[in-house]
Prior knowledge:
alpha/beta; five-stranded mixed β-sheet; D-Maltodextrin-Binding Protein, domain 2; 2 domains; 19% strand; 44% helix; single chain; 10 helices
Amino acid sequence: MDIQAYSVRTVLFVVTHTLMMNSQRLFCIGFLLALMTLGAGPAVAAGPECMRPFTLALHDHGLLYSANSDAGIDKDFADELIRRSGCKVTVSFLPRARIWQLIESGALDFSTSGISNAQRERFAGFAWYFSNRYYLLVRKDSGVTSLGDFERNAALKMGVIRGFRYSESANRLVDTLQLADRVSQAGGLDPLYQTLMLNRIQGMIIEPFDYPALDERAIREVSNIIEFNDPAVPHGLIMSNKAIPQAEQEKWRALVNAMRADGTVGRIFEKYFKSDLAAKLVNF
């Protein structure tokens, strides 16, 4: 009996000791896995803080947005951005010049496809999602074959959209003509097309988003396109500095960057352009 009791005690000791050792091993393994998880990489950045309803304005400009159809690249972009943010955003349609005024005052939170300059950077932040070049559309009967031809002929007038800025050479030409009272401003593309057809202006600045409109109009038959020799200009989400704190702007910028990185922006552009041109616009 003593031998049997001793054997039983020995077996129980071995089993208990083994279980305790295994428990300690499991605890250590679990603890190490937890440490590895914490150190695996930076935590996913938090999304924008939806502290209140936001406002975003679109402007009518070719394939970027059409107020008549309530469709376009910027509308698709804004819809996806809003969905990812999880915030309530009221979208409206406004003239471009009015948009910049409201962004500066803080009465408007966001707009789309904006380009920057020193003045605008004082009151707005940007999150880039495409880039494009600018072109001068001129009447064939103007005799213009170069940018210099247009500038030297005092009888020629340029049409621009109120509140728009362009690439460096395009801005320089517009500013020079403005000083000579040779610039006519309009609220959008359609009035400029009409005045060009009526020969009240002989040139206007266009972008790739305006090409389909040229195909649909007789204007292609009476005009030529001259390219400005400037690099492509980045366009992006506009964020009001007065309305959106810098820390929150970074969160919105991260959303835009994620949309670029996962191909969402590219797929939006491919709805409106051939794939090669879409890639050229979004890969910059």
